[in-house]
């Protein structure tokens, strides 16, 4: 694992569009290292520059899609590209795993492994909730998470720390 991936770099494949760019910006503003991927390196670098213009302290880079995936531990794409990105990642990792096996006593195996792929909901905006409504909302989320018929719970709220006490 490289030093860059050890820090948890996120890749946004097809991240030059409004959704990917907006999410990459929000995460960069939160201090996350981000790589924006595109079929065009120049377009990806231009998108990264747009983020740096809005947030000069951002740790963001632009790269071709495959390079972006190699530099990250988490890859994000929109639903329309999910299957093609998953297939491309599996093929890339399969090629990298074909390195000769390590010999007994050598350092840990650093060949990449594809752990999982999943669709998840990421809100484009969040709603601030506090006071009694925050307590009610947390109770509802807890009830939903414990319900046997519910597999995943997604939310778009933000509760300030002081409301949690």
Structural account:
The chain is of the alpha/beta class. The protein has 6 helices and 6 strands, in the order αβαβαβαβαβαβ. It folds into 2 domains: about 5-95, NAD(P)-binding Rossmann-like Domain (Rossmann fold, 3-Layer(aba) Sandwich), CATH 3.40.50; about 125-165, no CATH class. Helices cover about 40% and strands about 15% of the residues.
Work out the helix count: 6
Number of domains: 2
Estimate the mean pLDDT confidence. 81
List the strand order in the largest sheet. Answer: 3-2-1-4
> Rough shape?
globular
Low-confidence stretches: 1-6
Q: Any idea what the CATH superfamily of the largest domain is called? A: NAD(P)-binding Rossmann-like Domain
Our estimate of the beta-strand percent is 5-15%
Head-to-tail CA distance between termini: 39 Å
CATH architecture group name of the largest domain: 3-Layer(aba) Sandwich
Secondary structure blueprint with pairings:
Layout: H1 3-6, E1 10-13, H2 18-29, E2 34-38, H3 41-54, E3 60-64, H4 65-70, E4 74-76, H5 82-97, E5 127-128, H6 131-146, E6 157-158
Parallel strand pairs: 1-2, 1-4, 2-3, 5-6
Structure summary:
This protein has 165 residues and is of the alpha/beta class.
Main traits of this protein?
two-stranded parallel sheet, alpha/beta, 165 residues, 4-stranded parallel beta sheet, globular, Rossmann fold
């Amino acid at each position: 694992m490289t030093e860059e991936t050890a820090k948890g770099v996120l890749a946004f494949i097809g991240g030059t569009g409004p959704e990917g760019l907006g999410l990459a910006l929000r995460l960069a503003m939160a201090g996350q290292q981000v790589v924006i991927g595109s079929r065009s390196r120049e377009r990806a670098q231009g998108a990264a520059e747009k983020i740096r213009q809005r947030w000069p302290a951002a740790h963001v880079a632009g790269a071709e899609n495959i390079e972006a995936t190699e530099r990250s531990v988490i890859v994000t794409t929109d639903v329309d590209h999910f299957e093609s990105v998953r297939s491309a990642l599996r093929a890339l990792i399969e090629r990298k795993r074909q390195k000769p096996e390590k010999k007994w006593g050598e350092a840990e195996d650093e060949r990449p492994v594809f752990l999982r792929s999943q669709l998840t909901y990421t809100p484009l905006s969040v709603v601030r909730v506090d006071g009694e409504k925050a307590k009610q909302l947390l109770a509802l989320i807890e009830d939903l998470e414990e319900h046997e018929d519910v597999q995943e719970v997604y939310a778009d709220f933000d509760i300030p720390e002081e409301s949690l006490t």
